[in-house]
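#lab-general

N.A. 3:47 PM
ok so I finally got the sequence cleaned up, no stray characters, all 525 residues accounted for. can someone with queue access submit it? mine expired

B.Y. 3:52 PM
send it over

N.A. 3:53 PM
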Amino acid sequence: TDAEVSTRKKTFAEVQTERLDQAERTVLIKCPSKLNEKKLLQYLASHGNVKSHFFFENRGINALIEFSEKSSIASLQDAVGIPSASEHHVVPFKSRLFTFTLKNPVSQHVEETPLRLSPQCHIPVKDVIEKLCLADSISSQMYILLNEYQLTEENIKLRFLACSLVQDFTRAYFPDSTVKPFGSSVNTFGKLGSDVDMFLDFRDTGRHATKMKKGPFEMEYQMKRLPSERLATQRILSVIGDCLDNFGPGCVNVQKILNARCPLVKFSHQATGFQCDLSVSNSIAIRSSELLYIYGCLDSRVRALVFTVRCWARVHGLTNSAPGTWITNFSLTLMVMFFLQRRSPPIIPTLDQLKELADEKDKHIIGGYDCSFVSDLRKIKPTKNTETLDVLLGAFFEYFGNFDFRKNSINLRKGKEVNKPESTPLYIWNPFEQDLNISKNVNQPQLEKFIAMARESAWILQKEDKTQQMINKEPWGLAALLIPFGKNNFKMKNRMKGIGSETIRSLLDSLKLNNASSQQKAVGK
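B.Y. 4:20 PM
back already:
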């Protein structure tokens, strides 16, 4: 759509600023079940112009309302009362979450136009597979999958609102702090239903540096000093965590995980339905989000291929939401990017090429690492590569099915296979912290399971007779790859020949372990 194209070409920072501003003019209303949309909007208009709104289901009907002016919220808040304390006493924190009930409930027979509810989670894989079988090419199957899983405009607004509501608390202590989403909520690769990673930022960048030059004095705030930045982070998160736990409407299951490598507070935000992770600003994580944003905007094939590969990996148990020795979605995403850099001609530029295009305002040195790359998408030349997604999907499986993981590592800066600096099974260079391997957690059995599945998938795509399968109403193309490959699949065993029996044993053990642990989880639920 045109609207999509116009939003697509904005820089990452522009999109963020616009969305954060939108979120500050937004409220969330829990609505009565028999709701007349027109009546609601008419009433809200008495407080100011409603710029956009949508309804969604989450323990009842909810409305997200975006006003044109921030002052409309204060006007509405003046009209809203405090819940009457009968059996509960309330914490009198006035947020932007309201409950509306009808004073005179409408009698049953009134003809209501049903509300259009915006979905906030994706359909199950088996339903996706049914849709895929109706498509006419693997490319269109991949775009169907992308459309089912990607974040919607409404879901993104809800994510920014969740951050904005947390920001209301942090600003009580730190008036110029901001809370922003990072990672999958903003990098164009987020999937419906994923957690919201948010961070607390105190940087009031640029504004102060220029002001301080004037006048005869060096001036600074008196502030509490602590022995380390880590301790300051832990203390701030600890207090904000307590605050959300004690006063935050609908903030439940608050867990403070302050001794992690990156200290964070986890909580469920009931009003928006999100699982949230709050940490203190990590500039490198934000650069990674922006880098992926750029790659995702450059060519529509990039996102289609990433969503497809991640869905495929999830179905075959190659990735898992629990931490462990599995490949992570982030690692998989970078593997897809690397593959696209290796095509001839390349579909996306290397990180070094993006750094060449950077100008003064794009310069970022963080903790001694050069994290500079161009932010203006218009400066990047479009690719001359015209390969279809049908070709690229098969080529991806072939490429990694035959990749020399023993010798080579994956380096997005250079866009080349580089000798591994250390002997971990899978080595993917962190794009910015050049001495880190982002896939350090992956063990040999998991890597070999990935290789075996990639080979099997490449084989299925090469061998299949699409017309015959469509006549027989069998799943074909991508649909055939999203069905777990059977235990009694003799084809699989043939393609495992090249892999040592030791590995097969450990692979089978790891499969058993996975099964055992997932059964335990299922029982636990």
